[in-house]
Write a structure and sequence with these properties.
Elements (H helix, E strand, L loop, with lengths): L4 E8 H16 L3 E8 L4 H8 L4 E3 L3 H11 L3 E9 L3 E3 L14 E5 L2 H13 L4 E2 L12 E3 L5 E7 L4 H6 L5 E4 L1 H6 L4 H4 E4 L7 E7 L6 H10 L2 H11 L4 E2 L2
Parallel strand pairs: 1-2, 1-3, 6-9, 6-10
Antiparallel strand pairs: 3-12, 4-12, 4-13, 5-10, 5-11, 7-8
């Protein structure tokens, strides 16, 4: 950059803030100071971006971004992908989806966009069938066959409370976003019984207000976050639980 600039960026705690903290010295070399604000939910990062309290956010997937734009009429655009976090199904009682008993209760997020990522995991395992058009996100209403009468969505909680629900022994299985599983100290290797397949992963995006999309410092930010150095950090730090993209 010709002149030093500061970017205020809002992000989830893990892995987003950790990735940004690693990238900060690389950005300093390019004349950019990163001011990171960590959020614990999925609502405030977008309202903060809309209100101008931050310049960029880094926490959401394309499906969630599209849902938020439709619901709140945000004028946001994505500048690029950084990483993906496969949603996992976790259980302390069962070691596979196939072991889930008749009427097993599945707890998951209250975010509709997450439902479209979780339900195909069960369909892929042959436990349910979905009647949904290609390219559309599935909802609970799209379940056309459920031989085991699995109970989906009787408990829908904010994504940040899923790890505590799991640790408290609620439900037979809990679908947890990887960032909250990591943040909540869930043992992914021990308790994860199924995950999104890699061919349908939803990347986490760098999002800005549409009016700011051509600012050169944002292009540098994306370039650094998609660099080989950051990719290697993600691979080594999260041991496959977080997948670099972009």
């Amino acid at each position: 950059m010709d002149e030093p600039v500061t970017i205020k960026i809002g992000a989830s705690a893990v892995p987003h803030t950790e990735v940004l903290e690693f990238a900060a010295p690389l950005l300093e070399e390019r004349g950019i100071t990163l001011e990171i604000e960590t959020f614990t939910d999925y609502i405030l990062p977008n309202t903060a971006l809309r209100d101008g309290d931050i310049d960029v956010n880094y926490f959401q997937t394309p499906g969630y971004l599209a849902q938020q734009i439709e619901e709140y009429d945000y004028d946001f655009v994505s500048l690029g992908e950084v990483h993906a976090e496969p949603i996992g199904i976790y259980s302390k009682e069962y070691s596979s989806l196939e072991e889930l008993p008749e009427g097993a209760e599945i707890i998951f997020s209250d975010s509709i966009s997450d439902h479209g990522r979780i339900l195909p995991i069960f369909e892929r395992a042959g436990l349910i069938e979905l009647d949904v058009e290609e390219g559309e996100l599935a909802t609970i209403d799209d379940i056309s066959s459920n031989p085991k009468n699995l109970v989906f969505g009787s408990q829908q909680v904010e994504a940040r409370f899923l790890a505590p629900s799991f640790e408290n022994g609620e439900g037979d299985a809990v679908a947890i976003n990887t960032n909250y599983a990591l943040e909540g100290g869930v043992d992914i290797e021990q308790y994860g019984i199924a995950f999104e397949s890699e061919d349908v992963l939803q990347p986490n995006l760098i999002v800005v207000r549409a009016e700011d999309q051509d600012r050169p410092e944002f292009q540098v930010l994306v370039e650094v976050l998609q660099s080989e150095e950051v990719r290697q950090f993600i691979e080594e730090q999260y041991n496959g639980a977080v997948i670099p993209m972009g």
